[in-house]
Amino acid sequence: MSQKIPTRLYLSEDEIPRAWYNLRAVMKDKPDPILHPGTLQPATASDLEPVFCKECVKQELDETTPLIPIPDRLQEFYRAYRPAPLIRAYFLEKALGTPAEIYYKHEGTNTSGSHKLNSAAAQAYYAKEEGLASLTTETGAGQWGSAMAMACAFFGIGLKVFMVKVSSEQKPYRKALIETYGANLIPSPSNTTESGKKILAENPDTGGSLGCAISEAIEVAVKTDKCRYVLGSVLNHVLLHQSIIGEEVKAALDKYGVKPDIIIGCAGGGSNLGGLIAPFMGDKIAGKSNTRFIAVEPASCPSLTRGRFAYDFGDTAKTTPLLRMYTLGSGFIPSANHAGGLRYHGMNSVLSKLYRDGHLEARSEVQTDVFKAAVQFAKIEGILPAPESSHAIKAAIDEALECKRTGEKKVILFGLTGTGYFDMTAYMSYNAGTMGDRIPSDADLERGFATLPDIPQNQHTSP
Amino acid sequence: MSQKIPTRLYLSEDEIPRAWYNLRAVMKDKPDPILHPGTLQPATASDLEPVFCKECVKQELDETTPLIPIPDRLQEFYRAYRPAPLIRAYFLEKALGTPAEIYYKHEGTNTSGSHKLNSAAAQAYYAKEEGLASLTTETGAGQWGSAMAMACAFFGIGLKVFMVKVSSEQKPYRKALIETYGANLIPSPSNTTESGKKILAENPDTGGSLGCAISEAIEVAVKTDKCRYVLGSVLNHVLLHQSIIGEEVKAALDKYGVKPDIIIGCAGGGSNLGGLIAPFMGDKIAGKSNTRFIAVEPASCPSLTRGRFAYDFGDTAKTTPLLRMYTLGSGFIPSANHAGGLRYHGMNSVLSKLYRDGHLEARSEVQTDVFKAAVQFAKIEGILPAPESSHAIKAAIDEALECKRTGEKKVILFGLTGTGYFDMTAYMSYNAGTMGDRIPSDADLERGFATLPDIPQNQHTSP
């Protein structure tokens, strides 16, 4: 560490990773397998291929290949916006008066505004290669929909996005962005699908939900020729694509001999956190480091900190395979937290397993505290963070202040998953002092857990 | 050029310029001096210092120092978001099938979303160093207001932003962004100033104008203790600060032995274009290159292509010093083009002189053609451009297609001044097919020219 560390730790184009890091391959204790919901047997490729494109299914089930090559054409696309900046937070360190070193990986410099593009590009690429004509997906806050629209425009493949109706109304600019990139955007629930019609018949005035949008998107994918469904988080192949985040960070830090003591990421479905920590967690599992890993989730949707480790569906309509994960139950309804990207009842199964086995810590944060940290960060570091990312900022500031108290010079790294340009209503609410948060009661949680599938595998579920 | 050129041409932190390039110092034929509007004599520092901070005034009048050092603390700030990416548009080249090489400098990766931050930071820094307590400014489209709010939050100095009322209503998220950074935002015209009250008395329902907002901001700056006014374009010190754009581009291209044949920038007040071309124009004036320089302006506000070369006021209230420039008259009212940053009646005096002397070309573009190019670019290169920047994109595409016709392998460089995330209403209008444009008639222009000051210096004005 004799070399002076720049504010931005650069990687050259040649140093962008050429293979993804498959964390599962280095885990000694593997996550439990995905189950077919009918047979309760481990899902096979042929179970999943009617819904997802083939290469993604292959990656989803691959527990053994440590490094999976990134195709040339996809590398070419990545070079248009990567490497994402890794920034030393000199200004924040000084403002906090901490002896800690703070670094953050800024994934928000592309037009979709977040890390989501890393997997969107991969999924669009593989779909095109397979000869598919179109894809379907859902979006809530809009980051994933934007990323898929950009990726599909680039690779030349059709896209239908079911956007949670209330979000499409509250975020007209997100909607416009997705449409500008040529995607067909349908507010969900809609009359274009059976599942949408069913929901509308029961509740004509509903604003929709992510679970409902997923059901509509899967239905269209399964019923349409040469069409598949893509998902922006939760699944293992998405985590795999996001490992490029952690690999870039590691390559840049290695150049300067920096080793993180604490790595922090926000956690919704888990793809950003899983991607950020992947190679570092590999080192820890191999006994090469003692890095601490911290997942930060909203207090309104605390799947790791208050959920159960059980087999559960990925969607509220209970149509997906079963994943063993920390979950609040697919019927859990989180309150309207502004960090839409973190409002998910479950958590990726790799991260769930790592948490279960004590390799990963977790904490939850209240929305107003998160926005306080967000505004502080924006003024000091000059970047307006997404509400999701701000959960990681809050925890990083807390850890840096703890170092100030103890005098320890720890190296803290966090993931800045995206920018908040399309989240200004949340900032307006915070600025006006009208922002609140709603932490679920134990009874709320019990109602969610009651929706867990009643199967033999779940007989021994526990917190 | 034997070396393979990467998609992103990197500069390391050490290569960020440490001095600004003062284009006027290398011009053999200098621009005409700023005049005091009362005496019609060249303005002195003491004429300007009641309005602007001292160091900016010094820079405004400096015609001789070729390189002006960037203070250390400001360099530190620049390192938080610079160097801005210089991108080889491989995808666009391929999509157009052109033999030309296309490069663009992407100034939109900082939170303010544009190049404006380069000068905002400098002006906030100097104001703080001078011991001022606060600053005032105006903003129309909002980029400048956002940039000043970020800079003032960082350097710890107060800021009052007069935002054109109709913009503050049409762009609530821009307003929220400015307020999140702690600035005091006042829709203009307001009852807080004499000039605002006067305008409201005459026209209570007005949506305001940039000229009116400038008048309010200057009035407050002059009447308030330890307060000065800052402007985001037009003036020479702003161009000077923006020269970091061109210097970074030149340093990056020099590393790969690339020499641009054509440099293109959008032109409103001229600061982005002036900054982008500065060192390259210096080379041309010194006889070291034959680069062509093209300013692109909106057909609705054609100050270079249809304006007069005359002394004129910078604001509609006619309170500023007189600048000799291409102008449509300070009373010219451009139609409501979505590229708010280009809706200015005049043009920086250095650029005006260069155009007058044949060193700079100019063309104008119709809004719908500009948005067609913007959407094409967004889908191919993955970046959603600001409406202003898209004028340069349109011209770059045209030049690349001309190369395709002639078979010439020209090197085309353009400035991507910013992103369009806060301009989605414009994209919505374009997507819906409801976007138009209004090109001023000759009679419209005559009405504008009639507002030019009737002074001896203007007796020989001509197109």
Q: What does this 3D model show about the protein?
A:
The structure is a homodimer of 463-residue chains. Chain A is of the alpha/beta class and 463 residues long. Chain A has a domain of 253 residues: Rossmann fold. In chain A, 41% of the residues lie in helices and 16% in strands. Chain A is built from 19 helices and 15 strands. Chain A has a seven-stranded mixed beta sheet, with helices on both faces. A four-stranded parallel beta sheet of chain A has the order 8-7-6-9, sandwiched between helices. In chain A, helix 6 packs parallel to helix 7. Chain A starts with 7 loop residues before the first strand and ends in a 14-residue tail after the last helix.
Which oligomerization state do the chains in this entry correspond to? homodimer
CATH topology of one domain in chain A: Rossmann fold
The major pleated sheet of chain A works out as: 7 strands, mixed
| Overall spatial form of chain A | globular
Task: Provide the helix percentage of chain A.
Answer: 40-55%
Are there runs of chain A of 5+ residues with pLDDT below 50, and where? none
What's the total helix number of chain A? 19
The greatest interface here is:
A-B, 46 and 46 residues
Q: What would you say the CATH architecture of one domain in chain A is?
A: 3-Layer(aba) Sandwich
Strand order of the largest sheet of chain A: 1-4-5-15-10-11-14
CATH level 1 name of one domain in chain A: Alpha Beta
Radius of gyration of chain A: 21 Å
What integer is the average pLDDT of chain A? 94
Query: How many runs of DSSP E, i.e. beta strands of chain A?
Result: 15
Report the span from N to C terminus of chain A. Answer: 42 Å
